[in-house]
Write a structure and sequence with these properties.
The complex is a heterodimer. Chain A is mostly beta strands. Helices cover 0% and strands 50% of the residues of chain A. In chain A, the strands form 2 sheets. In chain A, strands 2, 4, 5, 6, 9, 10 and 11 form a 7-stranded mixed beta sheet that branches. Chain A has a 4-stranded antiparallel beta sheet with strand order 1-3-8-7, with no helix packed on it. In chain A, a hairpin with a 6-residue loop joins strand 4 and strand 5. The termini of chain A are far apart. The relative contact order of chain A is 0.34. By secondary structure, chain B is an all-beta fold. Chain B contains no helices and 11 strands. In chain B, strand 9 and strand 10 form a beta hairpin. The chains are: A mainly beta, B mainly beta. At the A-B interface, strand 4, strand 5 and strand 10 of A face strand 4, strand 5 and strand 10 of B.
């Protein structure tokens, strides 16, 4: 199985500042990485797939980049509604695998 | 508009078999490039992918659960059923079904839309 490791576990960011989340795959997955946002009591929300393609309706302040093993999700100008846990998930090979998540808090 | 909803028992006893039904609308599992999959989230823990069934009846499972999990579709009812045998308290989690899309031929799909989820508790 491909293991995806996220860092940091918790990220505290001031409103309006940028948040950068990292995800590393245990082997090359080309650009086959997705990012999900998960808020308590809500369904997961797909933000990004294919490393950098925003899903329908996702604000432009969410951007993804990376290739191979290293990936980042950047939330520019963090807003209060962005407080959530963010998960990366590879879609290069079966089984699909999620990272352990990064919790984004408001400082 | 695509919607999905999970249904099934909320309380299970250890060793029992769980059957969850995902009822969806807004898409058809007969269409090319579509799948329905399941993930779960134990309380306070990370998301875990479980299984998926595609439009062509291709089925994929998490290796750690392969011996306990099956998925099946009923296209006439727009439903997908997840069955998990030998339930254990460690299987206590919120279970979600999702609508998957294959953006690239030959590669696994991505989950675009999700049901509201349902908490299944396993306790004696």
């Amino acid at each position: 199985d491909i293991v995806t490791t996220q860092s940091p576990a918790i990220l505290s960011v001031s409103p309006g500042e940028s948040a950068t989340l990292s995800c590393r795959a245990s082997q090359s997955i080309a650009s086959k990485l997705a990012w999900f946002q998960k808020k308590p009591g809500q369904s997961p929300r797909l933000l990004i797939y294919d490393a950098s393609t925003r899903a329908t309706g996702v604000p432009a302040r969410f951007s993804g980049r990376g290739f191979g093993r290293e990936f980042t999700l950047t939330i520019s100008s963090l807003q209060s509604e962005d407080v959530a846990v963010y998960y990366c998930q590879q879609h290069d090979n079966w089984p699909l695998t999620f990272g352990g998540g990064t919790k984004v808090e408001i400082k | 508009q695509i919607t999905l909803k999970e249904s099934g028992p909320t309380l299970m006893k250890p060793t029992q078999t769980l059957t969850l039904t995902c009822t969806f609308s807004g898409f058809s599992l007969t269409n090319n490039g579509v799948g329905v999959g399941w993930i779960r989230q134990p309380p306070g823990k990370a998301l875990e992918w479980l299984a998926l069934i595609a439009w062509d009846d291709d089925k994929r499972y998490s290796p750690s659960l392969r011996s306990r999990v099956t998925v099946a579709k009923d296209t006439s009812k727009n439903q997908v059923v997840l069955t998990m045998t030998h339930m254990d308290p460690l299987d206590t989690a919120t279970y979600y079904c999702g609508h998957y899309y294959y953006p690239t031929s030959g590669y696994p799909p991505v989950g675009l839309n999700w049901g509201q989820g349902m908490l299944v508790t396993v306790s004696s």
